[in-house]
Request: fold
Amino acid sequence: MQDAKKKRILMLFCGGTIAMVRNEKGALEPGLKPEQLYAMCPKIREYADIEIKFITDIDSTNMTVNEWMMIIDAINSSMRDYDAFLITHGTDTMVETANAIALAFGSTLAKPVIITGSQAAPHELG
Reply:
């Protein structure tokens, strides 16, 4: 990256298919640690400094208010330290987590929060 200052991003790891691998029976299961997922994208280091905070690694259909509060608390307590927040998440309940964040912060959320997922494991073609 040229002379522009790198952005500081906090990645909140909540698992999802984006961090899964196939087991010996061919089924997807949690398999990648947050650091392994981050290591798969080395070019991003040219643009941003990313720190990782582990929240959970459960199926997103099992997300509860407890996990939402951990996400909200992590964003709230780190608001001054980061330029943006990236949340890895399962696609099944991504909208519910987005709603919880929107309700918690309302118009006071002054930094971008990106929720990302995948419907394919990262090692799969396509």
User: Anything to note?
Assistant: The longest strand covers residues 7-13. The CA atoms of residues 31 and 110 lie 33 Å apart.
